[in-house]
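We emphasize that the prediction below concerns an isolated chain of 290 residues; any contacts that depend on oligomerization or on bound cofactors are therefore not represented. The input was used exactly as deposited, without trimming of termini.
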Amino acid sequence: MGEVVAAILTTHVPRLMIHDLEARRAYMGRQISTFYEAMERVERERLQALPFDTFVLFDTHWFTTVEYVLNAHERLAGVYTSEELPQMLHDHPYDYPGDPDLAHAIELAARRNGVRAVASSHRNLPIHYPTLNVMYYFNPGARRRVLSIGVCQTASVENDLAFGAALGEAIRLSDRRVVLIASGGLSHRFWEYDRILERASASPDDIYSEENRAYDAKIIEWLKAGHHDEVLANANDFRRRCSPEGRFSHYLMMAGAMGGAGWNWRGEQFGSYEAALGTGQAIIYFARPS
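Result of the prediction step, given as a token string:
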């Protein structure tokens, strides 16, 4: 019988792939990100010794429209250059084992529950950097399988929770031990073109608005306290007020898989709450209670 052994809400910001210290200073100026060390600590202190088979990752840059789509390739391999920020993220080789068996099991469970889903193994199905940046840190040596899943841009909060519930059912019926990853930020509004580079630091002062910063803080405190019921009760309002990344679907699908409003695992924050060009970013790790 399968199980989810941990869950993570994590940033995937492109600056994670700036490896030179001077280049980091040149880009972020007065406050450099804490996420470099934080991502390494999550892998070293939480994931490295954890017995599990597969990362199931919800990717907030992979938008679908009429159904939930899962990557069912045997291997996720290639060389990646970002269409968004090619100067920062380019020529990045990757090669991870996929998990087509679990992808197809989730597809079937979703359909049984009246949720449209497709496990796709079509050639050249693209991989996006919310998957690759996070796997660079959390899956060194490509030891674990990777199942990347898109965000359905027409889905409601209820749709996302229903798909997540089907995904959780499929995991339990499998033989997989899984770590769920919601790869995306919190509030998600960028500074305008004429101001964006001067607001590139990691300081929370560079969040786009005080309302976004305050709402992010409230969400983080609920997550750390294990009050997922409060987060879900306010998800539609958060979407409306703060345009969270991926419409907050990365978290919603993960929460659905964990039991929705009944999920009560407390979150452990790694690194600081940070700005990224106006958006709100954090890393929160959820371990199964002892």
